[in-house]
Amino acid sequence: MIWTIARREIVTRARSKPFIVLTALLFVGVIAIAVLANVLGGDDERRDVRIGLTGDGVESAELLAPGSSSLAPEIVTGAGASTAAVEDGAIDVLFDGTSLSWEGIPDSQIDSFIRETLTSAQFTDRASDLGLDQEDISSLFSPVEIEEVRLDGGDDQFVLRLIAAAASGGATFMLLQIWGTFLMMGVIEEKSSKVIEVLLSHVRPSTLLAGKVLGLGALALLQMAILVLGLFVGLLLASDVEIPTGVWTTAPLVIATFVAGFAFYASLYAAVGSTVSRQEDASSAQIPAMLPLLSGYMIAAFSISNPENPAVVIGSFIPFTAPVLLPFRNAFADLPLWQVGLSLSILVVSSLLMIRLAGWIYRFALLRTGARTTYADMWRNRKSDVIG
Questions:
Q1: What's the mean pLDDT in 328-344?
Q2: What is the DSSP string of 320-366?
């Protein structure tokens, strides 16, 4: 019976426009990020620029023509090299041998390229006049080799860790919030339309709740899998960079925490939805479920520069915030297995307790219509097993 209810939820939601649109956006967004990362990461891409030379600046044509690793200059001389051409946008800059003319704010990349190229050429000429050959020059300016050691045991792949942490924490928060709200609104809709009375005439409240959580959880997990797949694609595109262990292990960890976290929060949202009978009361009713999840996201957002602060460490073991903070922390810190296992164990046990508590609230409040069922009413009648 649980699977029958779950299949009903899957078929109903999978055909809905919000699910289709959200899944399409996630899919397209993942592809766009992967393509953008590949484009921006290309080492062979050079920017095309036009440099005008006039007067004594023409003598620098051979020096500037090869360009640099980031600039591919086109040298313009003669009538095309003038201040009028700069003003018209025909060339980016005009160099007359002593000054650079720009239309507006100087382009720092072009400016540095011209100055460094000419300075290097003048230095070589002066060194030659002093009797220094190229080997002497190279020896003179060879960099000092100094090893960098981080006492915190971290590495230099901060950007990769940041992407993994932000993607895992943000995706978990977003999908738990979206699907929790979907579940809550579905319960309120069934309750207000009296459909719930028909359903409860055939199944027990706990069975109905389990079926709903299982069905919507399968769809939510599908969307999370799309995001995790995008993370793997991004990592594979960065194959020329050493990927930290914590980044690789974050992908499967976010799946595990999401499954347990979804069971926890979906049950909580369903219980909250059973206490109200009107869609208008949904916003205020969901605050107890939304605030803990939001607090976990905010802690992560404000801890980018210090992912090992006490709030993140403690929050990764608290079931209300662990679904967001555990993958976030692991991406930065390469957590030991015992800490991951302890946090997941606490989250799983808490999810089972939440399912049980939500099942009781669900059973108590599901057929109560009219005014919102308060938590005080449920506490006063906590020994009651009567529906309605």
A1: 85
A2: TTHHHHHHHHHHHH---HHHHHHHHHHHHHHHHHHHHHHHHHHHHHT
Mean pLDDT of the chain: 77
- Measured CA to CA, the distance from residue 252 to residue 221 in angstroms comes to 12
Residues whose CB falls within 8 Å of the CB of residue 309, separated by 6 or more in sequence, listed in order: 303
| Residue ranges of the chain assigned to CATH 3.40.190 | 47-140
Report pTM: 0.61
Helices in the chain by DSSP H: which ranges?
A: 2-14, 17-40, 61-64, 83-88, 108-129, 134-140, 158-192, 195-200, 205-237, 245-274, 282-285, 287-301, 310-315, 322-333, 337-365, 375-380
The CATH number assigned to the domain with range 47-140 reads: 3.40.190
pLDDT in tens, 366-386: 656 555 666 666 666 555 554
Mean pLDDT of 83-110: 89
Round to whole Å and give the CA distance between 216 and 228.
Answer: 18
Tokens of 150: 């981080």
Beta strands 71-76 and 47-53, pairing class: parallel
- State the pLDDT at residue 140: 63
Tokens 């996201």 -> residue? 297
